[in-house]
Amino acid sequence: MQLKGWLKNSLIDYLGHISTIFFTGGCNFRCPMCHNAALVLQPQIIPDIPLDKVFSFLERRVGLLDGVSITGGEPTLQPGLRPFLRRVRALGYEIKLDTNGYRPQVLAALLEEKLVDYVAMDVKAPPAKYAQLTGLPAVNLTRLERSITLLRTQAPDYELRTTIVPGLLAGEDIAEIVHWIAGAKRYVLQQYRNQTTLAPDWADIKPYPPTVLQTLAAQAREQLPEVIVRGI
After folding, report:
1. For the whole prediction, is pTM greater than 0.70?
2. Which residue from 50, 81, 99, 175 has the highest number of Cβ atoms inside 10 Å of its Cβ?
3. Rounded distance between C-alpha atoms, residue 208 and residue 8, angstroms
4. Whole domain around residue 118: which residue ranges?
């Protein structure tokens, strides 16, 4: 298990929990708006965090922390993810996983073994724009749809989330996404962050005013039971 970053305490990443966040390196997407470019493009130059240090910390924090978040990069690319989560679970922590949903077989195994309590899956765009928003020549939508179905039917708790990129995602796109994810428990609209982007020219894109996201959320609430705006 290659851990490349660590935020030891967070009150906001895993809602309702005092959590610690681990960042894995590497990703199977190349999203131009990604704000963890070094983790995606050059994980090999970032030193691994020793696992003995990680578990020493987690053992000492039992009763003080109650959640562990795994993000990236894309955590499901890590061959050691399941053994790592088993060790975390054995200490009594609840576990949140961030994923792009492109490896449904890994997600299925984690859910079957009850190794995650909350999954946050990115839904980057409506199907027709998925390749553009992930920086790939083509995207296998069936993989994503399988992951969405897994979350709806097997996850203890979850959210689907979309980063709202001005000029690329507008009201009609969100309407398509809402139709695509029909039946989802929770949908999150995230404000675009242009401080650090994988594609340098995307730093010139200015975020939408908060009122735009609030309007999009109001429209989505007509079809979904819970819609949250984050980052405004």
Report:
1. yes
2. 99
3. 31
4. 3-230
Continuous H helices in 42-200: 51-60, 81-90, 104-112, 130-134, 141-154, 171-180
The span from the CA of 192 to the CA of 103, in Å, is 25
The amino acid present at 158, given as its one-letter code, is Y
Mean pLDDT within 144-151: 98
Residue 120: phi and psi, rounded to 5, are -110, 110
Domain tally for the chain? 1
Q: What is the mean pLDDT of the chain?
A: 97
Q: Whose CA is closest to 24, among 52, 10, 4? A: 4
For residue 56, give Cα distances in angstroms to 10, 27, 31, 59, 91: 18, 28, 34, 5, 11
Q: Which helix (H) or strand (E) holds 224?
A: none
The backbone torsions φ and ψ at residue 77, rounded to the nearest 5 degrees and listed phi first, read -80, -15
Return the amino acid letter for 126.
P
Domain harbouring 129, CATH code? 3.20.20.70
Amino acid letter at 63? G
Query: What pLDDT digit, counting tens, does each position of 44-58 carry?
Result: 999 999 999 999 999
pLDDT of residue 196: 86
Phi and psi of 132, rounded to 5°?
-60, -40
Question: At residue 195, does pLDDT exceed 90?
Answer: no
Mean pLDDT of 92-111: 99
